[in-house]
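Quick one, T. Sequence first:
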Amino acid sequence: MIRSLYSLLASGAQLFLRRKLRRRGVAEPGYLLAMEERFGRYADTAQPGALWIHAVSLGETRAAAILIERLRGFEPGLRILLTHGTATGRAEGERLLRGGDRQAWLPWDTPKAVRRFLNHFQPSAGVLMETEVWPNLVAAAKARELPLVLANARLSEKSLSKARRLSRLSRPAYASLTAVWAQTEADAQRLAQAGATVKGVFGNLKFDAPVDVGQVEQGRNWRVESARPVVMFASSREGEEADFFRVLKANREVAQAGWARRSTDLIEPHVQWLVVPRHPQRFDEVAALAQQHGMTVSRRSQWTAQPEAADVWIGDSLGEMALYYGLADVALLGGSFAPLGGQNLIEAAACGCPVVMGPHTFNFAEAAQLAQEAGAALRVMSMEEAVRNAVTLAGNVMRRGAAVQAATAFCAAHQGAATKTAEAVLALLAR
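Structure tokens:
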């Protein structure tokens, strides 16, 4: 009964979904691509039997890339159907395709759209990455006896509370999954409370991500040429940048007015700031925000041989996070200074970049805690405290060196999820 009501509401919302996609497509044209796929209508034919992997957004697609690489190491001829929910996820996923693979939008979760999707592609099995559990999708897969698993699975306390409030809808969905492979024991416990059958705790796939050594080296070379410490705000989110620039501007005003009683009252002025926004559609907005706070700006897209002089560098490119982490002495963790759950800190650590994180890391709670215990990350409670600590760490050669070693050791100690997950997927296909 409750899923019937949910389906009725989801069907009625399709008109609003079209409007939302068109509005969002103004800033991100990728949302206008193949819009009918969102409703389960696919223009070309599809060969049945592919392994279907759903990676909703950029982070999940990067985790899926690690799994796909390991799967192809075991089964080179494996065909993949890769689905997404966001434009950044789809753009990233396009790089993973080989001959025989397909890419599409996952349809809106209505019974008709889901049925059309499954009828069209007829996958051999489905792998949902991290958090994407949709009631009608899971119910349709179960009715067809299509194996459907949740891999690299995580569930925060906040999401568990939401699932409990909607338990009549969410619990059957979790319970109908063929298997769940959790990132951590804590995630496994929460997923079990939500109704899932947890069949393994494999760790986080992102620890197995290969590091682009060439990008890291290029970044380090540029850092040496900059002749001053580089502090990066990595994967910054809306609202956080304004707070960041406010702190920098306030410190500049104190320095110019000579109000500081001690040198420790000031943030080191001889620092190169680097901001890499999480979402590409906000590159222009963040650059303008820096200028509104009285700072000169140089953008990565305008660089030729090396970065151009400015108060703030803006990392306005995709696929170059390893370069930015190589360029930075230390990074502030985006998404952790507002109640957004934090972004992935594993990539920073893998590149040897220590992290200063805010109070909100519930999306990566265990990774954040382990990184802090290992000495690869530092927890603070405010943006001002974060900036001050980051600058101090960047300017202390011995402390930073120890943090760099701790970061790389932290990543090496937690690898192995890719092989475990790939073996479990192939066992599923063999059945």
